[in-house]
Amino acid sequence: MTTPWTEDHMPDQTGRVAIVTGSNSGIGWEAARALANKGATVIMACRSIAKANPAANRIRALKPSGKVVVMALDLGDLESVRAFATAFRQNYHRLDLLINNAGVAKPPYRKTAQGFEQQFGVIHLGHFALTGLLLDRLGATPGARIVTVSSLSHRSGIIHFDDLNLERNYKPARGYAQSKLANLLFTYELQRRLVAAGQSTLAAAAHPGWSATNALRHSSMMRRLNPLFAQPSKMGVLPTLYAATAPNVQGGDYFGPTRLELRGYPKKVDSNTRSHDEAAARRLWTVSEELTQVKYAFR
């Protein structure tokens, strides 16, 4: 019987630099904690500095061998994304790991600073722009990885190219599913483009199964069911950590929990057929570059 993979199996991360978006709570906080514990310098990229600083102090109190640094990043504002990328580039010349984790799940209809539906704007477009703006740092760092956190909800997702902002028919779950499908289309297309450019950077994806986080705070039903069925964030983060650090990960891999992809230790899993639609992925890429005004420059 294969020994279940836990964070204890993570390789040493000393000397490596990691960015974890949305790391003041939940899966993101657990990822930052685990990476710092293994020696990495972890940039906690968070919208609210008031929430991020206490979260960082909780990690520092654990006396990790690495360190945590808080930086402001609002993925719902592309100007903030650009400012974050500029500040990071001024202070760091390498980027070993970018974990695109931040998100918002099933809120009432809202728009980002640039007028995008909030979930699509934060979960997909914000991370698309961030990754593109940091691509040179990733490409210059041997063994760099980009891990984007998706969800089982991608299975019901459709990319509404004729109404990406869902202005004609907004339903919170519909917006969330579209955004999480976009995460996977982005990951697979990014990996294809990295390979075509001859870059060694890997793009992979993960999902936490049913985990107790703040992401679904807008859903009263989920708040009631979480205590009964959800696994703790310390377990939910394992697929992300596996994708980020396990030596056998390949570009385009997708990881989730073992037991029905809801709970348990990480394993490689399959995403749905729609997520592998290369024509849709190319179209989404083109649209994303147009909307964010971030054009990827592969080495």
The CATH topology label is Rossmann fold
**Large-scale geometry:** globular
Largest sheet: 8 strands, mixed
- Top-tier CATH class: Alpha Beta
Number of helices: 10
Pick out the low-confidence regions.
Answer: 221-225
Strand content: 5-15%
Annotated CATH architecture:
3-Layer(aba) Sandwich
Detailed description of the structure:
Helices cover about 40% and strands about 15% of the residues. With about 300 residues, it is an alpha/beta fold. An 8-stranded mixed sheet has the order 3-2-1-4-5-6-7-8, with helices on both faces. Helix 6 (about 170-195) links the parallel strand 5 and strand 6. The protein is globular, with a radius of gyration of 18 Å.
Strand and helix map with partners:
Elements (H helix, E strand, L loop, with lengths): L16 E5 L4 H12 L3 E6 L2 H12 L6 E6 L5 H14 L5 E4 L17 H16 L1 H5 L5 E5 L22 H25 L5 E5 L13 H10 L3 H4 L1 H8 L8 E6 L3 E6 L9 H15 L7
Parallel strand pairs: 1-2, 1-4, 2-3, 4-5, 5-6, 6-7
Antiparallel strand pairs: 7-8
Helix pairs in contact: 3-4, 4-6, 4-10, 6-10
